[in-house]
Amino acid sequence: xxxxxxxxxxxxxxxxxxxxxxxxxxxxxxxxxxxxxxxxxxxxxxxxxxxxxxxxxxxxxxxxxxxxxxxxxxxxxxxxxxxxxxxxxxxxxxxxxxxxxxxxxxxxxxxxxxxxxxxxxxxxxxxxxxxxxxxxxxxxxxxxxxxxxxxxxxxxxxxxxxxxxxxxxxxxxxxxxxxxxxxxxxxxxxxxxxxxxxxxxxxxxxxxxxxxxxxxxxxxxxxxxxxxxxxxxxxxxxxxxxxxxxxxxxxxxxxxxxxxxxxxxxxxxxxxxxxxxxxxxxxxxxxxxxxxxxxxxxxxxxxxxxxxxxxxxxxxxxxxxxxxxxxxxxxxxxxxxxx
Amino acid sequence: xxxxxxxxxxxxxxxxxxxxxxxxxxxxxxxxxxxxxxxxxxxxxxxxxxxxxxxxxxxxxxxxxxxxxxxxxxxxxxxxxxxxxxxxxxxxxxxxxxxxxxxxxxxxxxxxxxxxxxxxxxxxxxxxxxxxxxxxxxxxxxxxxxxxxxxxxxxxxxxxxxxxxxxxxxxxxxxxxxxxxxxxxxxxxxxxxxxxxxxxxxxxxxxxxxxxxxxxxxxxxxxxxxxxxxxxxxxxxxxxxxxxxxxxxxxxxxxxxxxxxxxxxxxxxxxxx
Lengths: 339, 273
Ligand SMILES: Nc1ncnc2c1ncn2[C@@H]1O[C@H](COP(=O)(O)OP(=O)(O)O)[C@@H](O)[C@H]1O
Ligand SMILES: [Mg+2]
Known about the structure:
The structure holds two protein chains of two kinds.
Chain A: H1 10-30, H2 35-47, E1 51-54, H3 61-71, E2 76-80, H4 87-91, E3 92-97, E4 102-107, E5 114-118, H5 125-137, E6 139-142, E7 145-148, E8 154-159, H6 172-175, E9 180-183, H7 189-200, E10 204-207, E11 210-213, H8 228-240, H9 245-260, E12 264-266, H10 270-286, H11 294-305, E13 310-311, H12 313-317, H13 322-332, E14 337-338
Parallel strand pairs in A: 1-8, 1-9, 2-5, 5-8
Antiparallel strand pairs in A: 3-4, 6-7, 10-11, 12-13
Helix pairs in contact in A: 1-2, 1-3, 1-8, 2-10, 8-10, 9-10, 10-11, 11-13
Chain B: H1 20-24, E1 33-40, E2 45-47, E3 56-66, E4 69-78, E5 82-85, E6 90-92, E7 105-108, H2 133-166, E8 170-171, H3 173-185, H4 191-208, H5 216-225, H6 229-240, H7 251-255, H8 263-266
Antiparallel strand pairs in B: 1-4, 2-6, 3-4, 5-7
Helix pairs in contact in B: 3-4, 4-6, 5-6
C-alpha cells in the first residue's frame, strides 16, 4: 500500500481520542452545537493546515476559536482585520531604540502558535497578501533579518460572505493557501434556543464602581485541558493514519472530475488532493479509525475543493453554484462512466 | 473704531504699500485697485451694496477715526472704462446726507482698442460630408453584427451536436457494476476496478434509497445507518481501506446479491445521464 507510516500504538491512539473528547467537551460548554466546525478546527490543528471559516456575523466564529485557544495549551493571538491595518501590524517592524540609537526588531502578533485572523476580508489586499505569504513560507522577514514562525503554526481566519460591502475578496491563488474553507450554517432551532437560554443566564460583572453585562467571552475557562505534548501526539497520530490505494484513487478521480466538468472554468490543483488526504487522515483519527474511508472524502470534499474551483461565467449566469456543481461531481462518482 | 470688515482686515501693512499715486494709477476693467488713507469729513461712511450691473464696485477695507471724520481704505474695481466717482457708492451709516463729500474720482482703463474691435475669422465653407454616411455605416455595422451572432449560434450548436455525437457511449450503472462484481467474486479485480466497485455500490444504494437529491456528504452517513447498505459498505471499507485488509475471504458472499441486478432498477430516474 502506498502510504505506510510510522506506527502509533493503540494506547497512544486511545490517549489522543481521550484528549480530543476533552477539548470538544470544553468547547461544548461555551459554544452550542457547531460540531462540524469544531471538528474542522481540530482537523486543521492536528494536520497543520490553515483554516478559513466563512459565514455571516454572529455565528460564534470568534467565540469558537477563542474557546478552542483557551482549552489547548498553545500561544494565541487575535488580529482584527480592518481597512487601515498595515502589514507591519501583523508581521512586526523595526523600531529605533532611543537609548542605543539602533534599530530593534519588534515581532508582530503572527509570532504565535494559533493566530486568529478575524474578518480577514476587511483588510486591504496587501495585508492579506503579507499574511498569506507568511502562512505559506512559515517565516517572516523584518528589516534585514528573517525569522521562523513558531511550531506549530496555524492560522484560523474568518471572513464574511464576499458579497458584503466594504470587503476585499481573497483571490483563488490566496484561498489555495488554506487547507480547508468551511462555510458555517445557521444553528438549528433547538441549538438556537439553547444559545438564547445560555446567553440569558449570563449575569453582570462588577467593574470599578459600575458593572458591565457579561458575554460568553467573559466566562471562558482559561485552564487548558491538555498540554502541547498531547497536540504533538495527535499530530503524530494523524501521520500514522493509513491511506489505501483505493482511497488515493477516489481522490484522484474527484479532483480529475473537477477539471473536466463542463461548468468548471478552473479545476482543482494537485494541492486540493493533498489537502483532502491530509484532512481525511485527521478526520479518521477524530472518528476513532486508524485508516481513511470514503466517508471522510465525502464529508471533506466541499471544504477542501470548493474554494479551489472556479465556475464558467455562463454557468454562474445560469444560476449554478459551485456547491451544486461539486455535489453533481460527487454524485457522478461510480454512477456512470464513459466507455 | 474697527474696520468695516470685523476680523477680516485686508489692508496691507503700512511699509509694504507702494506709493498712493501708484495705487491710484488707473486700473483696467475688472482689476481691483486700492486707495488707502482717504480722510473724509462727517459721520462714518459705508459702501452702498452695489447691484451686479453697476459700472463700479466698492469695498471699504478699513475705517479708522480721524479728527472729526474718518480715514478710509478703499478697494474698488470698475466694470466699464472711463471716469467714475466713488461718492456714488457711499452712504452715511446714520443716513445723513453725503453732499459735503469732495469728489472721489477714479479712472478705469480699457485694454482693448477702442475702434474696430477684433473679430474672429469668418469660418471658411468646407465640403460637406456625404449626407447620411453615418446612418449607412451604422446600418452596415448592424448587419455585420447580426450576421456574426447568427454564425456563432449556428456554429456553436453544430459543434455541440458534433461533440455529443462523437462522445463515447455512456454505460449505465448496471452495465458497469455487474462485470465488476463478477470479477471481484473471482478475486480478479485490478486496483482501479476496486475503487470503481466501491463507488458504484455507493451509487447503487443511493439510487435504491432514493437519496439522489440529498447532499453527498449526508448520503454516506445515511447509507451507513441502513440495515443492508451499512454492513456492506463497512465490510468493503475493511477490505479496501484497512492497512491489514481484513475480510477478503468474505467478499464473494458479500457481493453475491449484486450479481443479478434488475436493469430497470438501475436505469430509472437519474440513470445514465
Ligand atoms: N452556537 C453558539 N453558541 C453559543 N453562543 C452563540 C452561538 N451562536 C451565536 N452565539 C452568540 O453570538 C455571539 C456572537 O459571536 P461571535 O463569535 O462574535 O460571532 P462571529 O465572530 O461569527 O461574528 C456570541 O457571543 C454568542 O452570544
Ligand atoms: Mg467575529
